[in-house]
Amino acid sequence: MTQLLTLRRGDLVAVVAPELGGRVLSFTRSGDEVLWQNTDLLDPDLQPREAVRRGATGFAEWLNWGGDKSWVAPQGWGSPDLWPGPPDPTFDGGAFSVHDLRPDSVGLVSADDPATGLRMRRDIALSDGGMTVRTSLTNVSEVTRTWAAWEVVQLPIEAADLRSGSVRVRTSRAASPHVLHRLVGDLPVISRDGVTAVQLTDAVGKLGFPNYDGWIEYRRASGVGLRLSSAVTSGPHPDDSPAQLWVQTPQTQPIAELDGFRSTAALLELELVSPLATLAPGESVGLLVRWTLL
């Protein structure tokens, strides 16, 4: 059995899986689920349907459980200055130890990662109307490294959301987002009055928002949704984008650009990234993200 921790505060309940990358697998308000879960991999009790693999490599082997997790940026392969995941054996795919467990909060600490030289801590706490997630990366190697903390929240897309759901980003000026990946279809964008809105479509791709100004939110066709907020900080960010959006819908063919990854689910990722920080041994970089249910 995989260890699951249940946090409660009023009508809010979060289920955390320390052994599955320290992620939040479920977040409900009055029993209504907010997060996307991979039901191909998880049973109704949120237990894995298959053995957990720690050494998988390549997107085609990635066990994407769903929910909310923290990663390391910049991402890539073939260089010691890039995080080669997901999958990876330490962060997305690793087992975290449990610290400071309380009825409505918990701290989770990863193993030391030889690829990045980092140790990650996630502090998860329910709050009135939402939750906070603080990600801290500490350089435990003997050399200076440059990294950013990165939180990724996966949310479901249903048929009605493709017609009238949208992602909105508060922006400091009217500017087109960066197209980080255009794999299938397009994501229409309208920028007006300090907000950039992205219409959900049948697509697979990723946008980055260099003019992010404090929050990114997903409002579903039903009107409910989730807003993620973080401090606006100066300094270079991975992909020049403090906020990023990934969208995927089911496709009939594997995606060659993603190592043959098969997109079989409809979901999006709201992502926030800290500035890149040059860390001497023992130094840390952090990212605090506030969740507000809409």
What does this structure look like?
By secondary structure, the chain is mainly beta. It has a single domain (5-286), classed as Beta-galactosidase, Chain A, domain 5. It contains 1 helix and 21 strands. The protein has one helix at 159-164, and strands spanning 5-9, 12-17, 23-29, 32-33, 68-73, 97-102, 105-109, 118-127, 130-139, 145-156, 166-171, 178-184, 189-192, 195-199, 204-209, 212-219, 225-229, 243-248, 267-273, 277-279, 284-293. It has a 10-stranded antiparallel β-sheet. Strands 5, 10, 12, 15, 18, 19 and 20 form a 7-stranded antiparallel β-sheet that branches. Strands 1-2-3-4 form a 4-stranded antiparallel β-sheet, with no helix packed on it. The two termini are 34 Å apart.
Compile the SSE list and pairings.
Elements (H helix, E strand, L loop, with lengths): L4 E5 L2 E6 L5 E7 L2 E2 L34 E6 L23 E6 L2 E5 L8 E10 L2 E10 L5 E12 L2 H6 L1 E6 L6 E7 L4 E4 L2 E5 L4 E6 L2 E8 L5 E5 L13 E6 L18 E7 L3 E3 L4 E10 L1
Antiparallel strand pairs: 1-2, 2-3, 3-4, 5-10, 6-7, 7-8, 8-9, 9-21, 10-19, 10-20, 11-14, 11-16, 12-15, 13-14, 15-18, 16-17, 17-21, 18-19
Task: Tell me briefly what this model is.
This protein is an all-beta fold. The chain has one domain: Beta-galactosidase, Chain A, domain 5 (Distorted Sandwich), CATH 2.70.98.10. The chain contains one helix and 21 strands.
Backbone structural class: mainly beta
What CATH calls the topology is Beta-galactosidase, Chain A, domain 5
The CATH first-level class comes to Mainly Beta
Secondary-structure element order, N to C: EEEEEEEEEEHEEEEEEEEEEE
- Rough shape? globular
Q: What about the largest sheet?
A: 10 strands, antiparallel
Rg is: 18 Å
Percent helix range: under 10%
Give the CA-CA distance, first to last residue. 34 Å
Q: How big a fraction of the residues is strand?
A: over 45%
Q: Uncertain spans, ≥5 residues at pLDDT below 50?
A: none
Instruction: Using the 3D structure, state the CATH architecture.
Output: Distorted Sandwich
Let me know the average pLDDT.
94
Strand order in space, largest sheet? 6-7-8-9-21-17-16-11-14-13
Total helices: the number is 1
Q: How many discrete structural domains?
A: 1
Tally of DSSP β-strands:
21
